[in-house]
Specification:
Blueprint lengths: L6 E12 L3 E8 L4 E7 H6 L7 E6 L10
Antiparallel strand pairs: 1-2, 1-4, 2-3
Length: 69
């Protein structure tokens, strides 16, 4: 799969929670950090997402906020 988005993070699905309309997918990245994605339940079911699946989290945004204390 080739995409124009530059922020593509490889990881493994560690949790899938289906709601009535939306699903929450927790992906553990290679460095041990986790990222959470909220996608439609229909999309999660179409992708047949399961714990242990290798996936790619793709982040496409025009803004990235940075914070510092």
């Amino acid at each position: 799969m080739r995409l124009s988005a530059r922020n593509q993070l490889d990881g493994v699905v560690v949790k899938v929670e289906h709601g009535a309309v939306m699903s929450t997918i927790v992906v553990r990245l290679g460095d041990g950090q986790e990222i959470v994605s909220a996608i439609t339940k229909d999309s999660a079911e179409a992708l047949e997402l399961r714990e242990g699946d290798a996936v790619k989290a793709v982040i496409k945004a025009t803004e990235v906020m940075i914070g510092k204390q």
